[in-house]
Every structure is written in structure tokens, then in C-alpha cells.
């Protein structure tokens, strides 16, 4: 009788490997800054809302419009935002936060969001979509490493991955100003260690070493600033009075 009860309990409470096998759920890494900076696993589909691992990643995606590395999605961003029931600015910022910061610590996610919002206000009249869809395949969401010619303007950031509700919530808080700007006005963000790894691995679209990129930004008049609570993460901000086109 004891063994029968144990068998019934095992059927009611399968182990993680068995549960994944039954539900055919893949484990996928989160992509950051246009490439895989972290390898945090998360369940992509058929996952109960209460699973801690699902809560860790901010809940289920609001749509299924993920994009492969080096590619873009030929769908009007406004259409995706409307389908998700979100203002375009909120959806674009949330998508960029998911693509660039994934399930990174809160300080880094906030810094990424604020840098993008600051960039949109400084360069595009507050239009987040214009900032995050510049460069190759302009006007559409896509990877940061979309192929481009030497000398051609590269993409500002990645928008490869569909946002989760936590990304949209953070985006709206940043737009509303209800969460503080931890970048001190930063407009660009950068992970030096990741950049060097991508260059060393000859990852498509990544050609410049971290130090060369930092030197270039400093020559352009930007200051380097490291937000509190982040690691291998810096932002570039403009000193007071500096006008940058």
C-alpha cells in the first residue's frame, strides 16, 4: 500500500525533468545587447503562472514576435503595439528592455530603460521607436547586429525579443518618471566585457573593442558613468551644455 501511495504521489508531482518532457517546454537563454550575454534559463510555453521560474523572468511574453540574430521583423511596430494593447512608446521601450537586459538585476534593467528614454528625448523628440529602429532595416524591430556596411550607422540597440508584462510596467514607469533615472542622464549603454567577447568570437556586426568604443565616445564629448548596482555595465552621458547631433 505504501508503494502504491508513493506511485500515486509521483504521478501527481512529477520532477522537473519529467514535467518538461510531458509539456514539451524548451529551455532558452535570454539575449542581451544584441547577443547572449546571460544564459539564464526560462520556460517559453505552457507554463503555469505560479511557477517561480516564470515569475523570475517577468511572466509570459505579450506576443510571439521574437527575431533571429542578424534579422528584422517586417511588421509595423504600431501594429504590434496595438495588438498588445500598449501605447507605441511603451511597447517599443519594453521590447528594448527585454532584448537588452532580459532578466538582469533591476538596476541594470532600469539603466537600460532610462538610457533609451533619454536618447529618445535628446535625439528624436521623445519617440522611442525612432531611436530603437534606426540604422539598417530602419523603422522595424530587429537585432542590433543586422548587417551594415563599414561607415554606415549601426543600430542603437536590439529589439529582438517580445516584452513581458514586467518590461512594459518598467517602461511605463520610466516614461511617467515614477522610477528615478539611475544613469544621471546617460543616453548610451554598454557592456565592455561582453563587447570584447563578441569581437573575439567574430560575432557578426561586432568589430570594435570595448576600449576603442569607449575612447571614441569620450572623444565625442561623452562622459563615462557607472550606475550603482551594476557590473560590467556603463553608460555614456553628455556633460552640461554639450550639444551632440
SSE string, helices as H and strands as E: HHEEHHHHHHEHHEE
Question: Could you say which structural class the secondary elements and strand pairing correspond to?
Answer: mainly alpha
Rg over CA atoms, rounded to whole Å, is: 20 Å
Number of domains: 1
- Report the sheet-strand fraction: 5-15%
Distance between the termini: 77 Å
Individual helix count? 10
What coarse outline follows from CA principal-axis ratios?
globular
Strand order of the largest sheet: 3-5-4
Strands, count: 5
Q: What is the arithmetic mean of pLDDT?
A: 77
Q: Largest sheet at a glance?
A: 3 strands, antiparallel
Task: Write the SSE topology.
Blueprint: H1 2-12, H2 16-23, E1 27-29, E2 41-43, H3 52-56, H4 77-83, H5 88-101, H6 106-123, H7 128-132, H8 165-176, E3 188-190, H9 192-200, H10 210-219, E4 223-225, E5 234-237
Helix pairs in contact: 4-5, 5-6, 5-8, 6-8
Task: Report on this structure.
The structure is a single chain. With 245 residues, this protein is mainly α. It has one domain (1-180). 40% of the residues lie in helices and 7% in strands. It contains 10 helices and 5 strands. The strands form 2 sheets. A 3-stranded antiparallel β-sheet has the order 3-5-4, with helices on both faces. A hairpin with an 8-residue loop joins strand 4 (223-225) and strand 5 (234-237). Helix 4 packs across helix 5.
Amino acid at each position: 500500500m505504501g508503494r502504491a501511495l508513493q506511485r500515486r504521489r509521483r504521478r501527481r508531482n512529477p520532477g522537473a525533468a519529467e514535467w518538461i518532457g510531458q509539456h514539451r517546454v524548451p529551455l532558452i537563454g535570454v539575449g542581451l545587447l544584441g547577443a547572449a550575454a546571460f544564459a539564464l534559463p526560462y520556460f517559453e510555453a505552457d507554463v503555469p503562472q505560479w511557477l517561480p521560474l516564470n515569475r523570475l523572468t517577468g511572466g509570459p511574453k505579450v506576443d510571439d514576435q521574437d527575431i533571429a540574430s542578424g534579422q528584422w521583423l517586417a511588421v509595423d511596430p504600431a501594429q504590434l503595439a496595438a495588438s498588445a494593447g500598449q501605447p507605441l512608446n511603451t511597447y517599443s521601450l519594453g521590447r528594448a528592455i527585454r532584448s537588452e537586459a532580459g532578466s538582469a538585476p533591476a538596476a541594470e534593467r532600469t539603466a537600460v530603460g532610462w538610457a533609451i528614454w533619454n536618447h529618445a528625448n535628446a535625439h528624436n523628440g521623445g519617440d522611442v521607436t525612432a531611436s530603437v529602429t534606426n540604422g539598417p532595416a530602419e523603422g522595424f524591430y530587429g537585432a542590433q547586429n543586422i548587417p551594415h556596411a563599414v561607415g554606415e550607422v549601426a543600430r542603437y540597440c536590439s529589439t529582438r525579443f517580445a516584452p513581458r508584462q514586467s518590461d512594459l510596467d518598467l517602461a511605463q514607469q520610466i516614461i511617467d518618471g515614477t522610477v528615478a533615472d539611475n544613469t544621471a542622464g546617460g543616453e548610451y549603454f554598454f557592456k565592455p566585457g561582453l563587447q570584447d567577447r563578441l569581437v573575439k568570437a567574430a560575432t557578426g556586426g561586432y568589430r570594435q573593442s570595448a576600449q576603442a568604443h569607449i575612447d571614441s565616445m569620450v572623444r565625442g564629448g561623452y562622459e563615462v558613468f557607472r550606475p550603482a548596482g551594476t557590473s560590467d555595465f556603463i553608460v555614456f552621458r553628455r556633460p552640461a551644455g554639450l550639444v551632440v547631433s
